[in-house]
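Entry 12.
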Amino acid sequence: MGEYISALSNAACLYDQQRAYLLYGIEDKSRSIIGTSFSPNKHRVKNQELKNWLDTQLKPGIVFIFHELFRDGLKIVIVEIYSAFGFPVSFKNECFIRVGTYKKKLKDHLGQERQLWEKLSKKNFDVLRFLDHPPKSRNEQMGQLMRRMGICEERGSGVDKVVSEAEFFQLPAPNFEKGDDFTRVTLYSHQKLGNMDKTDKVRAAYQHASLKYISRDFMTNTSLRKRFNIPSGNYPTASRIISDSVSDGLIKLYDPKSGSKKFAKYVPYWA
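Predicted 3D structure (tokens):
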């Protein structure tokens, strides 16, 4: 499994994808559900939990998540694997890549290796993606140790929590800025909607759409009114904010074919 995680994480970066997926319980050729007995939370390697053991063998540390679900009484396991960032992902000090339908050693495919390094070197993190982006520890071993000691999270989720709390207390959206050698985050005290400028409103709408999407939901006119505490009869105000956010390219319609504006659903631009 570690080799496949390495291969898929590197391939996701190579093909400009945010994530890759490894499925158990799906027949390769027919794509039909056949089920699996694999239970990642119960599986042990050298007396260690599977995920913990994989964490020690994958370098640099990346985010991968196990999902277990059932369809028609058959179990499916999905491994959600985030794209490589900074360096190619290796397993037991060997990097892998997906070539067609095969898993290969990256060093044996110089063309893909060169392209991957070009992708990694050009991959410049966008502050708009602080939300729901796979966090990366500067010191993976220290992060693992402090998490086991209960001192802190191994990979933080602070940005998502801050934005969520700002929404809950109906504060202006935090502003994330990046310079040549710094990152700055500005938090704001309470402010009436009428005192916010267009940029403030659009930033809040984008962050609201992002929070909704990562919680498997959608932004709507109704949800945005609740976020800003806009009275239900004043839906045109929310509509203007949505329109401005779409024009700025920060959100988009979930279903462009839908003709309903009243019940339209919106997602962040990267969804």
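Annotation: The chain has a mean pLDDT of 86. The two ends are 27 Å apart (CA to CA).
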